[in-house]
Amino acid sequence: MFTAESLKQYRQSLRLSRRSFAEITGYTEAYIYMLETNRKPMSMKASNNIMTAIERYADEARKLVKDGGG
Asked: Which domain holds residue 14?
């Protein structure tokens, strides 16, 4: 499960803005901000949803690379 700091570090390691990260995960930019700044506790469900969305994003990125960029 993500902590506020680990979520922010992970997003930044992917070089994604909050807006892009929100679009990928299906959450709002405001919600991502509240999670990253620990203004809202992260539920296990939200953590799992974020991980699932990021895995799907990574799979799509790998496919694009494999297929020569789309």
From this structure: 4-66
CA–CA separation, 18 vs 39, rounded Å? 15
Calpha distance 56→60 (Å, rounded): 6
pLDDT tens digits, residue range 11-68? 999 899 999 999 999 999 999 999 999 999 999 999 999 999 999 998 988 888 888 7
Instruction: Say what the pTM is.
Output: 0.82
CATH number at residue 15: 1.10.260.40
CA distances from 30 to 36, 48, 49, 64 (A): 10, 19, 16, 29
In the chain, how many domains are there? 1
